[in-house]
Amino acid sequence: MITILSDYTRQEAGERLEQKLRERKIETELIAIADLHVDPCYSCGGCTNKTYGQCIHRDDADIILPKLMRTDVLVMVTPVKWGSYSFKMKRIFDKCAVIGDRHYYCKNGELVKGKIGRVHTFLAIGVKAQWVDAEKRAFKNLVEENIKIMNIRGRAYLADDSNLSDCLETVAEGLSK
To answer: Cα–Cα distances in Å, from 114 out to 71, 124, 139, 151, 173?
Structure first.
């Protein structure tokens, strides 16, 4: 199962990727986050103590997180601002920490988390009209660091107005193997 979290302003990129995967008979779910309300993670520790595995702050993450627990591959389609995920995507990504093991451990000199859900691959497609080199590096570094922390496979893809179709085709082809 592949889950696409899409926060592209027109939802176009996420929808196009979902269509490409469905054409290849891959079980896919698109979650358009534009209309969802997710509060920030307050780092209160409630999910590790009070309500183990659940955020004590109720919001639309309650809809998203159970779906992410059942997915094998998480694909984020996000506009890139200052080399990072969009505001809404960052909030959801922070809340996803409750899916991971509550304990860090050291692997190859890095702190990493175990996982409770099935996610084994994380792909982030950053969409921007025009990239500058510093922002490309920042986005790639962010995704690589998240992949290390989550202790899973993954990759960052950079899409702009000229290569969005090719980028989505490359991702769909890679996921169909």
So the answer is: 16, 20, 23, 7, 28
Treating both helix axes as pointing N-terminal to C-terminal, what angle do 12-23 and 164-175 enclose, rounded to 10 degrees?
Answer: 40
Q: What is the mean pLDDT of each run of 10 residues along the chain (177 residues)?
A: 86 92 96 91 79 81 88 94 92 79 68 69 94 97 90 93 94 94
Helix H or strand E segment including 68? helix 61-69
pTM: 0.88
Check whether domain 2-175 has CATH 3.40.1350.10, yes or no: no
Point out which residues pair with 100 in neighbouring strands.
115
**Do residues 102 and 46 lie in contact, with contact meaning Cβ atoms separated by under 8 Å?**
no
Is residue 70 a contact partner of residue 63, using CB atoms and an 8 Å limit? Answer: no
d(CA 139, CA 33): 20
